[in-house]
Amino acid sequence: SSDVCSSDLGVQHALMRLLAVVQTPADYQAWLDNQRKPGVAPVAPDAKAGEETFLSTRCATCHTVRGTRADSTIAPDLTHIGSRRMIASDVFPNNDAYLEAWITNAQSLKPGCKMPNLPQYSGVQLRDLVAYLQQLR
Fold it and tell me: pLDDT class for 3, splitting at 50, 70, 90?
């Protein structure tokens, strides 16, 4: 999972990490096959509300979630972000708290990245957006 940062990956080269996962060939093929699938449609009410937020705001302007109308290639493909162990170039664990912080104030976590701070997302709307992203596995 990589994140788009300013020119030539931004100013945070020291914060770029690579997570290597060792798998059997069969497990790798299963993972790869799943990664090629479109995003999972949300079922839970909070995730459904989050999908609507994602698709009707700036998120869909930059990101892709395959199987939805979000098909931009400016920023990372988030089709299976919920299955990622880490976010922000593998710097932070992919949990609700860090994902909320990344959405609302990415610059404080990784100065110089292209992900803008989006403080307009808060409260229930932010929790719903995170619920949607986390169910994309």
Answer: very low
